[in-house]
Design brief:
Elements lengths: L2 H5 L3 H16 L4 H6 L6 H13 L1 H11 L6 H14 L9 H13 L8 H22 L3 H5 L3 H10 L4 H8 L5 E5 L6 H10 L4 E4 L3 E4 L16 E3 L6 H7 L10 E4 L6 H9 L5 E6 L2 H14 L4 E4 L14 E7 L14 H4 L2 H18 L3 E11 L8 H10 L3 E10 L21 E8 L4
Parallel strand pairs: 5-6, 5-8, 6-7, 8-9
Antiparallel strand pairs: 1-3, 1-4, 2-3, 9-11, 10-11
The chain binds S-adenosylmethionine.
S-adenosylmethionine binds next to helix 14 and strand 6.
């Protein structure tokens, strides 16, 4: 949608849609699904405001606690918290705070189910404008207000990353840039970057094959995308295929690779870009609809994998009995490492999810390990920063499997923002999400 059209959508209408989406997220619906329900003409503006509101929801909830004697019903509360999240910090507010308040009250008046609460919302928000500095100060000691994450999440990070929990939370609250992986089988990074430059797209290098665009663009407008010369993928995620295939086989030798949790196929595509044509890749995912996306994504880069919809842990339903040289297990996880890109995740998860997902990851590891050839390898990864889904999982696995050896691995990558970010020691340089990588080698039988 053009800026002109966006500007013509009244702010109250956008705030109404943001509040509805926020109420959905609080009911457990993902931000992506909540935004799908928003008319396409409103969606870009609503998404930007929703993401900002989610990044400041902890502060907003603490302020609402001071302004309202009890928590309002879900929709008025979502509208009140949206207005507070967007207006509490005038230096970073997307609109002038008075405008936001006026338009939030207008949204209440124009929404049938909110009309009865319009006066209440007006009273809360006017008081907020009058007493903002004092109210904000009164919430400064509240951990959730300070870091905009649930308290359990903050405590968990303090426990798992005692020296870096603040860096992680700070990075989580930044918006992530648009990062691309160059298909080096078809072009070089320097060539693609030069082509982008000629089209007025400035970028910076990240990792071995990545380019970070200075400004996000519609993917279809990015030179090389339609031809499969590049794909959107975070720099930390780009390490998966590189690590799994590094020194795996002499050049030209065909290998058999399983991508066990493959959809939507970002890492499958990368594996295929790095492998020769005679290698075989099997891409598995439990979700048949997401499997269709693997096929579509591979079509764009002009490569093929055998795509199977199945539960990777129930090997008798899909495995043909031939061992694999390499298995990528990009396991389902809390996604606690990618909250820069998905600011809803922190509010959707419950602490109990960590143990539930860790049990699923443990079982996937157990079931897939026998399918690795002696001398072959399995790369276990999650886009999580919680050690229960990373380091602890890998340690326990190696302790219980005498034929498994941990090869040099990246371990826990902590998210960091900014293309020149190199401040965190023992982390990848550049801008990237949080991830965990453990490369396990299967020792030959004695
Ligand atoms: C982190 S995502 C994978 C992302 C993908 N590797 C990529 O780079 O595009 C995890 C995937 O695991 C799938 N999944 C969850 N449980 C599974 C299981 N038991 N067997 C196979 N796939 C599973 C989910 O449907 C989801 O698509």
């Amino acid at each position: 949608m053009s800026d002109h059209k966006l500007a013509s959508v009244p702010l109250w209408q956008q705030l109404q849609a943001v509040a509805q989406a926020l109420a959905q997220v609080r009911r457990g619906v993902s931000g992506t699904a909540a935004l799908e329900a928003v008319p396409s003409t409103l969606r870009p503006g609503v998404q930007a405001l929703l993401f900002q509101a989610l990044r400041h929801l902890g502060r907003a909830q603490a302020l609402r606690g001071l302004l309202a004697s009890r928590t309002p019903a879900p929709l008025p509360d979502a509208l009140l918290c949206t207005a507070l999240a967007l207006a509490w910090d005038p230096d970073n507010a997307p609109y002038e705070p008075h405008t936001l308040v006026n338009q939030a009250v207008e949204a209440a008046k124009k929404t049938r189910s909110l009309q009865m609460q319009a006066n209440f919302l007006n009273a809360c928000l006017r008081r907020f404008l009058r007493e903002r500095d004092a109210l904000v100060k009164a919430t400064d000691q509240d951990l959730q207000a300070q870091w905009n994450h649930p308290a359990w999440w903050i405590h968990r990070l303090q426990q798992d990353h005692p020296e870096h929990w603040q860096d992680i939370l700070r990075a989580n609250n930044q918006a992530a840039p648009m990062t691309w992986r160059v298909n080096t089988a078809r072009t070089s990074r320097a060539n693609l970057q030069a082509d982008w430059d000629r089209h007025g797209l400035s970028s910076a290098c990240v990792g071995e094959q990545g380019l970070v665009l200075t400004q996000a663009h519609n993917v279809r407008d990015v030179p090389g995308f339609a031809e499969g010369l590049c794909s959107v993928q975070d720099a930390a995620a780009q390490c998966a295929a590189q690590l799994l295939l590094k020194d795996l086989a002499p050049a030209g030798q065909a290998v058999r690779v399983l991508d066990a949790c493959a959809a939507p196929g970002g890492k499958t595509a990368h594996l295929l870009e790095l492998l020769n044509d005679s290698s075989e890749v099997i891409a598995l995912d439990i979700d048949p609809q997401r499997c269709e996306r693997i096929t579509q994504n591979l079509q764009r880069i002009g490569r093929r994998a055998k795509v199977i919809a199945a539960d990777a842990a129930i090997t008798q339903t899909w495995w043909d009995g031939q061992l694999f040289d390499a298995i990528l297990l990009d396991a389902p996880c809390t996604a606690s490492g990618i909250v820069r890109r998905h600011p809803d995740v922190r509010w959707l998860r419950r602490e109990a999810d960590i143990a539930k997902l860790a049990a699923i990851q443990k079982n996937l590891l157990k079931q897939l390990w026998p399918l690795v050839k002696p001398g072959g390898r399995l790369l276990y990864c999650t886009c999580s920063v919680f050690t229960a889904e990373g380091e602890n999982q890998a340690k326990t696995f190696v302790e219980h499997n005498t034929n498994a050896r941990l090869l040099p691995s990246l371990g826990h990558l902590r998210p960091q923002s900014g293309t020149t970010a190199t401040a965190l020691v023992d982390n990848l340089s550049g801008d990237h999400d949080g991830f965990y990588y453990a490369l396990l080698e299967k020792l030959p039988a004695l």
